[in-house]
Design a protein that fits this description.
The protein has eight helices and 14 strands. It is of the alpha+beta class and 310 residues long. The chain has a single domain, classed as Deoxyribonuclease I, Chain A (4-Layer Sandwich), CATH 3.60.10. It has a six-stranded mixed sheet. Strands 5-6-7-8-12-9 form a six-stranded mixed sheet. α3 packs parallel to α4. It binds one DNA strand of 15 nucleotides through loops.
DNA sequence: ATGGTAGTCATACTA
């Protein structure tokens, strides 16, 4: 059984790439984030034609989470069961005042039972700048997530909570903590929020089989960050112990972060349970020497710049 | 030193 998560950065813009990846990796369950669609706009045919059901929870212009499953999908929960979210679709009046930021009014959580496991697809707030209202809202959102996990995901039951957590759990999960995102994604309060999920008993599926550093799921579109492997591991599949015991393989498919049409800025993360599924070559080993050469060139350029200005 | 790209919709915004 193959499970996966992928922040697709617009399902409308990425549909062709998502179809390609479903055929390439053949996941049984794929959690998606940032579909940027309303529930009415979601294309169903590309999924049903491949034998998948699609459970979608979207507010429109931003956010949007989904579960793609060929193992059925029942007992759907959206927004932690706290009620409907706003409409940010075309034509909707949306406040851009930062004091009005409310992550609980955005489509950031959907959950369903697929193949006897409760799957939850989450898209954590970005936070933008440490100390900003967006950062405070991010921490509050993680508090709500932790409470929902404590109340609704008993660790003795099979469950997967995956998605874009917007947190790099340790310094091994970020190319340079000091340069990351104005301090967000790596700050102690964010890492503590992530750590509380692990303390509850959830297991990081990727780290179950990979100890390497320099393995990331997100790279900024700008300045050749992907090609230098300056990224962060911020997408995760967290597993309760009954699922974690079944982990046979995990991979980040960096091939999906390349090529035409334009890729998402995130790569898919997959975990195989009960044995390895369809083999994929994610291309990490062959890329290592190119990363090293480009990073060395980058450091030389940096040194020349500081020479010239001192 | 700054900004660099890509998504939304059609302008600044979000990331």
């Amino acid at each position: 059984m193959r499970i996966a998560t992928w922040n697709v950065n617009s399902l409308k813009a990425r549909l062709e790439k998502v179809e390609w990846w479903l055929d390439r990796a053949q996941p049984d369950v794929l959690l998606m984030q940032e579909t940027k669609l309303t529930d009415q706009e979601v294309p169903l045919m590309p999924f049903t034609a491949r034998g998948y059901e699609l459970v979608h929870h979207g507010d429109g212009r931003w956010n949007g989470v989904a579960i793609v499953s060929r193992l059925g999908a029942s007992d759907v929960i959206t927004n932690f069961g706290d009620g409907p979210v706003r409409d940010s679709g075309a034509g909707a009046a949306v406040s851009l005042d930062e004091e009005d930021f409310n992550p609980f009014d955005e489509a950031r959580m959907v959950s369903a039972v697929c193949g006897g496991i409760r799957f939850t697809s989450i898209y954590a707030p970005n936070g933008r700048v440490v100390g900003s209202p967006f950062y405070v809202g991010k921490l509050a959102w993680f508090e709500r997530l932790a409470r929902w996990v404590a109340e609704c995901l008993p660790v003795a039951e099979p469950a997967v909570i995956g998605g874009d957590f917007n947190v790099a759990p340790t310094d091994a999960d970020v190319w340079a903590a000091a340069r990351a995102h104005g301090g967000t994604h790596v700050s102690p309060p964010e890492r503590d929020a992530f750590g509380r999920l692990l303390a509850h008993g959830l297991v990081d599926g990727y780290r179950r089989v990979h100890a390497e550093t320099g393995r990331y799921t997100w790279w900024d579109y700008r300045a050749g960050m992907f090609h230098k492997n300056y990224g962060m591991r911020i997408d995760h599949l967290l597993l309760t112990p009954p699922v974690a015991e079944r982990v046979a393989w995990a991979e980040i498919d960096r091939e999906a972060r390349k090529g035409v049409p334009i890729p998402s800025d995130h790569a898919p993360l997959l975990v195989d349970l009960d044995g390895r599924d369809v083999p994929i070559d994610a291309g990490w080993e062959g890329a290592e020497s190119r990363f090293r050469a480009r990073q060395a060139a980058d450091r030389r350029a940096e040194a020349r710049r500081s020479d010239g200005t001192s």
